[in-house]
Structures are given as structure tokens and as C-alpha cells.
């Protein structure tokens, strides 16, 4: 991979695909170069800070709002970030892990956990998404190394088939109830630091969470959410899915493939 190459194939093995299928997540090393992360990461972090609307001190926020500052669809705000989000390397990994012939963008989201930022409670992302199948995956891309004290993402291995907790959004309740259920049934929680260039991928129904940032440095992370290129829209099950439908799939119709201007095919097998 040349320094700013974000399109070349990553050498994913059959064993890694099988591990992802089994565990519902995987962490991959050396996915992106230092130069890529420096060039694109600087713009992502700058935009996140500039476009963030949360001005309250951390101690005055809810548990959800203490977890991170978040800004969505940065790809629409900057040609440079757009180039990153449409990169073929990450999208091809997503498609190969999902075992589908191509992936569309659902949306991107930057997650900036400030020094002193709280935990990210246990949850499954797909609670928020009005999508017809489980062929969704989030790439979690740290823009700097993430040691334990900065709150790296951790995953409950093999939890993607668990129905309990799928109706809970990020909250104190989700942290308490999902964590207790995972522990009661013996699901292993896998957590650890992220090296620079390491990227994780997790299914939409894999339960996960992150610790507090007790360091003095912000944890800046970019996420890209991919879905099967043939994904169809389904009726929203809750108010947050109504919001997601209107925000990220404008003009899509229930039962149809989500082929809107905001949901381009990022990679497909020739």
C-alpha cells in the first residue's frame, strides 16, 4: 500500500472471514498507513470540532452525550473526507466479511471522545436502522493509537444472534441490562488497545461498548457504516429509525433497495 493509497485490496484470509462470521467482529492490523491516517484524520478531526453543536460541560450531559461528540456524514462536508469514505480498501473488506457481492454507504460518523468523556454503554447499532437484513457492518477507524485508558471499543463475541437488548438504545439502561445478560449467558467480552492503522469491523447486531477516556488526549475515531448493496428499507420500528430513515435514506421507499444519492455503492465485485 503506497502512503496515500486507500483503494488497494487488503489481504483478507478465509480464516479471518470465518472468524468474523463466528464472532460478529474482527480487528485487523495494518489496514491504513500512518500517512493516510494523518492526512485524512486531520481533516476529519477538524470538521468534527467545527461542526459539533454540543457546548455543555461534560458533567451536565446525559450518559449518551458524555460518551462522545459525534458528527454524521462528513463525506458531504469535505471532498477530502469524501475521498476517504469512498475508498475501495475498507469497502472491499466490508463486502468480503459480509460475504456479499457489494456494499453501499449507509452513513459515516465521527466519534470524538473528549478527555474525561464517559463510557459508551453496551448496545447494538442496528437498533437504530430500518434495514431488512443483518448484512450491515461498521468499520471503526481510530485516527491515533487507542490505549486502554482512552476507551477503545470492545465486543461481546458471538452476540450477534442474541435478541435480548435489541430494543434498547444507548443509555444507562442498555449498559445495565445488556451487560448483565451477556455475563449471565457467558458471552466473552473482548477488549484491548488499538494500534495505529488497526481497524475493527462489527456486525450491526453485535453488542459492543467502550470505556471512559481517562487520559488527557482526545480519542478521535471515524466510523463508516456499510450495508449490502441489495439492502431494502423496512418499516421503522421506533422513532429513532424514523429519524435514520429520513436522514440517511431520503426518498427510499419501503420494500425497495436503498438506492439514493446518500447511499452510493462504494465497492462491488466486477
UniProtKB/TrEMBL annotation:
The keyword Oxidoreductase applies. Coiled coil: none annotated. InterPro entries: Phytyl_CoA_dOase-like. Pfam families: PhyH (PF05721). SUPFAM superfamilies: Clavaminate synthase-like. This is Phytanoyl-CoA dioxygenase family protein. Keywords: Dioxygenase, Oxidoreductase. GO terms for molecular function: dioxygenase activity.
